[in-house]
Amino acid sequence: MRPFYQPLVDQAFSVDWPSSLHAGDLDVFANLNHGVPIRTGAVDTIVASDLLEHLVEPAAFLAECHRILRPQGHLVGNVPFMYWLHEAPHDYFRYTEHGLRFLLGRAGFAQVAIEPLAGGLDIPVDVISKLLTKIPVVGDWIARGLQRFWMLVRRFPPLKKAYPVFPLCYGFTAQK
After folding, report:
1. Which residue has the higher pLDDT, 35 or 111?
2. How far apart are CA 15 and CA 113, in angstroms?
3. Vertex 31, ends 116 and 78: CA angle to 5°?
4. How many helices (H) and strands (E) does the chain have?
5. pLDDT (mean) for 142-164
6. Omega of the bond prior to 89 within 30 degrees of 0, cis?
7. Could you tell me the CA-to-CA distances from 149 to 120, 153, 154 in Å, in that order?
8. Under 8 Å CB-to-CB from 58, ≥6 apart: which residues?
9. Which domains does the chain show, CATH number per domain?
10. Which of 33, 75, 107, 143 is at a distance of 20 to 30 A from 175, taking alpha carbons?
């Protein structure tokens, strides 16, 4: 995600555990289940993209986020809901909007906004695309073609009505 937000900030750093699949792009190594090595009130914004489902103690991590954010700071993130098992064995949870709201509120966040992202027919297209990538040589090419085709088709408003009931994932923002 760094290429997307880097031009919008003065300073950015990434934190994850040393054995993470993303360890090559990290600035700070830490087990996020056991605290964040950042001083209290030191950050304006935290991006937690596709992270909470990989934590054994997500409530403890959210409390840490609240601690290290400055007053009025923001936590921005997303979590999968109807999504494949990934980064096993460290894939522990799927969150509903209600579960997210509860966890963020318990951690002390006052203003919480949660939106379903994709859903309905996006889910079988996502599953089929992931399965297609397993086909040697042509799988990735076919999967990308299917996803591009679907991005054109899914623009029709009736297809978006399924998002709240069958979301692929949720995006959220929370303010300290």
Report:
1. 111
2. 24
3. 10
4. 5, 6
5. 84
6. yes
7. 16, 6, 9
8. 52, 93, 103
9. 2-118+160-175 (3.40.50.150)
10. 33
pLDDT in tens, 101-126: 999 999 999 999 999 988 888 999 99
**What does pTM read for this prediction?**
0.86
Q: Which residue has the higher pLDDT, 12 or 124?
A: 124
Q: Is the pLDDT of residue 157 over 80?
A: no
Q: How far is CA 155 from the centre of its chain?
A: 23
121 burial (CB, 10 Å; 0-12 / 13-18 / 19+) is: middle
Residue 108 gets the label, from left (phi > 0), alpha (psi -120 to 50) or beta, of left
The type of residue at 27 is: D
At position 37, the amino acid (one-letter code) is: P
